[in-house]
Amino acid sequence: MRHPVTAVPVPERVRTLAALAAPTHVSVAGSGVPASAARGGVDGRGRPVLLVKRGETLYAAPAETLVTVDLTAIREVGGVERPRALLKVRGWTQPVPAAETRAAAVAIAEACPDEDLFAAVEGGGPALLRVDVCHVIYLTGQESGVLDAESYLASAPDPLLPLAERMVRHVNESHAAQLREAAERLTGEPAQEVWLWELDRYGATLRPGPGHLVRVPWPAPVATPAALERALACLLSQ
Length: 238
Hints:
By secondary structure, the chain is an alpha+beta fold. The protein is built from seven helices and eleven strands. It folds into two domains: 10-154, Electron Transport, Fmn-binding Protein, Chain A (Pnp Oxidase, Chain A, Roll); 161-237, Split barrel-like, CATH 3.20.180.10.
């Protein structure tokens, strides 16, 4: 009997979380300097891009400085931001080439709505540093591990990610009763506050309570937006 895939392959899931994450802290290996707050985002290849301002540790640091960047992915439910994952990306800093600064700034603008991004594009002010990935440590609450650079960079985020995130927000805002009923059917237990926690081409994850996640795999991975919408509608209406 063939069983459905219940979880996203780890490299894809980590890349998906990275695409939704924002840098919170950066530390310089072997420096003895405490970790400092970080601003920036993640580019299309999964590499952290940091917006570094004058006077900050990394502003005058040489290229190939070994750093660890903490990326945090959150989910806002009920007006409260709750952590989904912590990713610790270890790698070497490189200045973003001048010809690529505008594209890099656009890639991180949503995660880093900072006016200094414009100054970084123009040059002569804040700098954009890219981190050449060595490995990624991931902690997602229920899973943890390490991905090497080859596995991480060779993967890609869920291809339906933008749509999935819009659907998660809509369902959490407008379909609380159906979520609760779905969770009760799946667990056989009464539920109070239920949230749609994750949605991807392999399935959905419900959060019927703190520290409690219920994974619901699709019969087969979905490949189109319409198929994802149908799969979620079936989950909520069964």
